[in-house]
Design brief:
The protein has 663 residues and is mainly beta. It is 8% helix and 54% strand. The protein has a five-stranded antiparallel sheet with strand order 4-3-2-1-7. A hairpin with an 8-residue loop joins strand 19 and strand 20 (279-280). It is globular and about 65 Å long.
Length: 663
């Protein structure tokens, strides 16, 4: 396969790679295809629509895809859009490639080498988007005959179809939720009057709309469809964290997705009975996305403790559950379509898409491809017209800092989790930029991918004291791993599978052991995992969250005492800080130990406050205040000055897309 050069950059289309003598960059296949197409048509002004129609003629893709791709290309090739050397923007028309293509082999002409390279790019893109490994699953595309898009500013969290060919959806505006009605005929959106401001989910039946509103507790309201006024009637209040709801067609049962002890479970509640008890369905791991197929059958997605995904069916008459294994993972939505067919969102063989799932025989068909950086927040089916509506959220995320650091890293991804390496003046983060999660390094405004693990998710990143080792916890092929990457050897030196309910916490002070927290019955125990011989030893019972060691002992958070404790090598235990009755967010990402004290995160009037507690003075000092949409990923000091690193999502936009399938 041929390569070509743009300025000092070596472009290898087959490998989706662009490189300099001392740096390497990976482009996702679609971005590489767009680069190649621009180069092939050097000097021609190409519109976004032209590019998409030429490369993906049978797919419905947003022009924004081209805009993002050109942004990525310019960033990698160091091309300034204001003074372009390679790609020039022609206002209201498109883009034109104005750079020069250099030869890899002098005997070949510029035209030949560019055409060969472009041919490789287009062929690679064609096979990437159309030829997925089947493994017995039908992945044929379903054609669509009608696509309706209505862009909405803000975050759409839930959608549902009523019996009047109308779409009900919620939109988050200024930290509160509003309820809208979309008319599929006139394409007009009407804001409905309601006193509810914390709407988490909605579901429509033939007669009523059911609204899940959660503040301190969660309540479910019933809304009369014949009256658009503020007539929400409370029917149930539960002191549980409810994520989703679904209602049986006869409106006798509520199916709820409830989060408890860091797990999702499905519960049933009778609408007809007053003071009805919550009936939890049998579960082995995590259950999500409840959907009624009829009055007696409830389907949902079950992920067992070994991280295998199943489609579960609970029969309300017999109270029996049957399951079918699914080849899809990272399921983010499920909706009943017709007969034995369901619309499901998830990832199969690295492809994230909206699928039509047929149960018997089991098959998956692509309805619409979803970019890795997008998130499907709702699916609703109009059973009269067999139209599929789904909401997509675009949430650009950046890595930023405050205090002794001042930086902003832009990178297309859903999860960044930035960590600062002060010795290298670089950042480590994880990204699903290419569809699978990898470890990335940002140094001197250059970004490079470090790993090739093709993970379905990276959960945690930790750095040792020498800043030469990086530990990461990730999931791949439905198994959880803990790995160690060496920045000195530029390779993974340690990788083991571990229990699904185990969580990576930190390195010890010698960098030879990893601290992990692992579920034991209803508690979590603190364990030490040796990197060299892979032996595991138990450190403390019912402990975890934050851990650090020194030559004399170990610091850890005790769940039993709700306190930060220090245990000496001789076994003596001292309480350093009592967290009881304090409005803190006690989770692994919200607290970081140092030798002098610890950083921690608390909430005051919906604002996040980062403070530091000094072990010697026993004084707490507030350091920073950040917004609710900023997620802190690292704390530290540079020359005694504090800094924090956080991910920020801003300019959230959503779309509702409607697809009418051709059968």
């Amino acid at each position: 396969m041929r390569t070509f050069y743009i300025a000092d950059f070596k472009v290898e289309p087959e490998k989706n790679k662009v490189s300099l003598p001392k740096a390497e960059f990976r482009l996702e296949p679609r971005v590489m295809s767009i680069l190649c197409y621009l180069v092939e048509h050097q000097g021609e002004v190409l519109s976004k629509e032209q590019i998409l129609a030429a490369l993906w003629p049978n797919q419905s893709l947003e022009p924004e895809l081209v805009t993002k791709a050109v942004f990525e290309i310019r960033k990698v090739l160091n091309d300034n859009p204001k003074t372009p050397r390679l790609i020039e923007t022609i206002p209201r028309k498109g883009y034109v490639f104005i750079g020069k293509i250099n030869l890899q082999k002098p005997k070949l002409s510029t035209a030949n080498i560019s055409l060969i390279s472009i041919f490789v790019c287009i062929v690679a893109a064609f096979f990437y988007t159309n030829n997925t490994q089947r493994n017995g699953i039908d992945l044929s595309n379903i054609p669509t005959k009608k696509i309706i898009r209505h862009s909405v500013d803000g975050e759409i969290s839930s959608i549902s179809v009523n019996n009047n060919n109308q779409l009900l959806f919620t939109q988050k505006e200024n930290s509160s939720s509003s309820l809208y009605l979309h008319n599929n005929t006139t394409l007009k959106n009407t804001k409905l009057e309601t006193s509810l401001t914390e709407i988490r989910d909605i579901f429509s039946t033939n007669e009523s709309d059911y609204i899940l509103n959660c503040n301190d507790a969660c309540s479910i309201f019933k809304r009369d469809k014949d009256n658009d006024n503020d007539n929400d009637t409370p029917i149930l209040k539960i002191n549980e964290r409810i994520i989703k709801l679904n209602v049986s067609p006869n409106e006798k049962w509520l199916a709820l997705q409830i989060t408890k002890h860091n797990r999702h479970n499905i519960a049933l509640v009778s609408i007809e009975e007053k003071d009805a008890k919550i009936f939890y369905l049998p579960h082995d791991g995590s259950e999500q996305h409840p959907v009624f197929a009829n009055d007696n059958s409830l389907y949902y997605i079950s992920q067992t403790s070994d991280r295998k995904t199943h489609l579960a069916n609970f029969n309300l008459d017999t109270r029996q559950t049957t399951t079918k294994p699914l080849p899809i993972d990272r399921v983010s939505g499920l909706s009943f379509y017709t007969d034995s067919k369901y619309v499901i969102t998830g990832r199969y063989n690295g492809q994230y898409a909206l699928w039509l799932l047929t149960i018997d025989p089991l098959s998956l068909s692509v309805i619409a491809n979803i970019d890795p950086q997008q998130k499907v927040t709702g699916i609703a089916v109009d059973h009269k017209t067999k139209t599929i509506h789904y909401a997509i959220q675009n949430r650009p995320i950046t890595i930023q800092s405050k205090g002794a650091l001042s930086t902003k890293i832009e990178h297309p991804s859903i999860n960044l989790d930035g960590k600062y390496l002060s010795e290298r003046k670089a950042f480590i983060f994880n990204s699903n930029r290419s569809g699978s999660y990898e470890l990335w390094l940002e140094s001197h405004d250059q970004q490079s991918k470090l790993t090739e693990i093709n993970a379905s998710y990276i959960h945690t990143i930790k750095v040792d004291n020498s800043q030469s080792l990086i530990a990461l916890s990730y999931t791949k092929d439905k198994a959880k791993h803990i790995a160690v990457y060496s920045l000195l050897n530029n390779t993974i030196i340690f990788d083991v599978t571990t229990e699904n309910d185990s969580y990576l916490l930190n390195f010890d002070h010698t960098s030879t052991n990893l601290y992990i927290s692992q579920r034991a019955a209803e508690n979590y125990d603190l364990l030490s995992l040796n990197i060299k011989n892979q032996t595991v030893s138990k450190i403390a019972l019912n402990a975890g969250i934050a851990t650090m060691s020194d030559v004399n002992g170990i610091y850890y958070y005790s769940f039993s005492n709700q306190a930060l404790q220090y245990q000496t090598n001789l076994g003596a235990t001292n309480t350093l800080f009592d967290f009881e009755n304090k409005a803190l967010q006690i989770r692994a990402s919200s607290i970081k130990l140092t030798k002098e004290g610890f950083f921690y995160l608390s909430k005051i009037n919906k604002q996040q406050v980062i403070s530091f507690y000094d072990f010697n003075s026993k004084i707490t000092k507030p350091l920073f205040m950040i917004k609710p949409n900023q997620f802190v990923t690292d704390f530290g000091f540079i020359n005694s000055l504090p800094y924090i690193i956080f991910d920020e999502d801003a300019d959230v936009t959503s779309q509702i897309i409607s697809l009418e399938l051709v059968h």
